[in-house]
Amino acid sequence: MNERFAFYDDYVQILKEELVPAMGCTEPIAIAYAGAVARETLGELPTAVKVSVSGNIIKNVKSVIVPNTGGQKGIAAAAAAGIVAGDSSKKLEVLAAVTAEQAEEMKAYQAVTPIEVEPVDFGHIFDIGVTVYAGEHSAYVRIVDFHTNIVTVEKNGVPQIVENSGCSEELVQTLTDRSVLSVKSILQFADSVDLEDVKPVLSRQVECNMAIAAEGLKNPYGANVGKVLLEVYGGDVKIKAKAWAAAGSDARMNGCEMPVVINSGSGNQGITASVPVVIYARELGIDEERMYRALVVSNLCTIHLKTGIGRLSAYCGAVSAGCGSGAGIAYLLGGGYREVSHTLVNSLAIVSGIVCDGAKASCAGKIASAVDAGILGYHMFLKGNQFVGGDGIVKKGVEKTIASVGRLAHDGMAETDKEIIQLMVED
User: Fold this and answer.
1) How many angstroms separate the CA atoms of 34 and 25, rounded?
2) pLDDT tens-digit map of 224-256
């Protein structure tokens, strides 16, 4: 092992913060989580509900099935699920223990309970507020910026525990500074990390995400993108990497209730950053230690790419994860800084135009395209080909290119995001 990496503890903590289990698409699950906390704060089943959400939440909840609801979609269904049957102590697995009887209770509850959905713009791309009412009493819970970041809890308009902040200090979460991430440092960390420090989160990611990918290939879900890839293009490792990742999204976006270990707040990104690397390792007989170190590269490169973009954007998150998986595959196959850097630059140049129009079945197709770009980007460099600074948004050097993409997605696509949301809510 090399000398201990300077930001070692930060990198370990970043992985622990980001690679957490979730059941179902994380935006509706965040609404369910807020609903569960609101009901617990109120102390009884609400007779009326108001859900106030930012545009990106509307976009990412509108078309995706909420798990354990009998196939229901949308914001009202997510809120009702959390209120009727959610266990807030499970956070992003808030609906994991819901029974079939409780799913029927949710439907009955929605039939008699007004659930108002209100679009809001308070300056946060990620913003969820759930207000619940019963008689003269009310409770309010607000989550901003990321999926479990509760910043306000009120009962009858009175902040709970800490005046002015609206919640207990334990509820307000802070994330480790992501500015310590760079491609060169990620590789240094991957080379030197004691695997016992990261294996618990990585092994859980492998187990959960490979299981849901297998489920997506076994049974019909959505548009069956993973199955189509294998049936049409065959069983080459490059096809399998795309197909298994797509199949995980096929299942997850279309009602499968198996848990996923997420990355950057997204199950699809967690699947995309991990499954292709595992497929390559298993198909090519590469040892487990190298696979885990490659997963460190893939996951941290994905997080690094997403940091400048933000949790939600008009820029498809699968792009970052697909490029990250390409970097992980490059490392898995013996690549170092040059190979990984050029893989990232090449793949970002190819697929940075894919837009996010919410969570739904077509995410699987976008994942397949992003993973394909990651693999192509790697093989381009092996063959002596590359995109260079000045080719469109590509800059000289991987870090400048990553910053360029972040600016494009965060700033340049802000108006695009508004138009996408408008298109989605129109009849």
Assistant:
1) 15
2) 999 999 999 998 999 999 999 999 999 999 988
